[in-house]
Amino acid sequence: SQTIHQWPATLVQPVGSPLSLECTVEGTSNPNLYWYRQAAGRGLQLLFYSVGIGQISSEVPQNLSASRPQDRQFILSSKKLLLSDSGFYLCAWKGNGYTFGSGTRLTVV
Amino acid sequence: AQSVTQLDSHVSVSEGTPVLLRCNYSSSYSPSLFWYVQHPNKGLQLLLKYTSAATLVKGINGFEAEFKKSETSFHLTKPSAHMSDAAEYFCVVSDFYSGNTGKLIFGQGTTLQVKP
Predict the structure, then answer these.
(1) By the 8 A CB rule, do B63 and B40 touch?
(2) Helix, strand or coil, per DSSP, at residue A21
């Protein structure tokens, strides 16, 4: 069966520190992968999507970047976090339907 | 461009009473529509989806939604609310304009409060 793993579940980071959130998918190959963010009191916004290894599309200009070094691995990164990067980050993949990871709650202090 | 509007940011019901969460969408073509639920600090769980088959869609936990093209609506209902239904609900449309990318467009979310 297909599963999606996302970690860590919670993270508190100081302003200016780097970030790396990882998402991996099992049980499928060449999935479409997505990073979404939910800011406090707002809906989910698509940040990045990837249709294959090394292929990244950015939806909104921001302080974050994404990479897909392997077929089933999708990484969200930042070199220097801002306070506005706080939020709930969700990784998702599209198979027959959409499957979401359990999310990472990031607080930048 | 496609868009989704959830008409209520917050809905409060008593346990055992009906639930109605409203959603309107904008699309030039027949969209795929979804309702997801998010419990606190948890990921998203699919409640139901519409993909151009039957207009009345039944989902998990007693929820259902009706696709009304003439009203461009996809409201979520449940006959009797349970305390465990308290969560945030998202109406979502799939973006057909993006070819194979399958991007999802989310509404702003509706927080459902269930009072004892």
Answers:
(1) no
(2) strand
Backbone angles phi, psi at B25, to 5 degrees: -130, 165
A6, A10, A44, A49: best to mutate for the B interface, most B CBs within 10 A: A44
Q: How buried is residue A102: exposed, middle or buried, by Cβ count under 10 Å (0-12/13-18/19+)?
A: middle
Structure-token pair, residue A59: 């939806």
pLDDT of chain B along its 116 residues, tens only?
678 999 999 999 999 999 999 999 987 677 889 999 988 877 788 999 988 778 899 999 999 999 998 999 999 999 999 999 999 999 998 866 555 567 888 898 999 999 99
Pick the CATH number of A3-108 from 2.40.40.20, 2.60.40.10, 2.60.40.2550, 3.30.200.20: 2.60.40.10
| Gap between the Cα atoms of B49 and B42, Å rounded | 20
Q: How do beta strands A87-94 and A32-38 pair?
A: antiparallel
In A, which residues are within 8 Å of B43 by CB distance?
Answer: 6, 90, 100-103
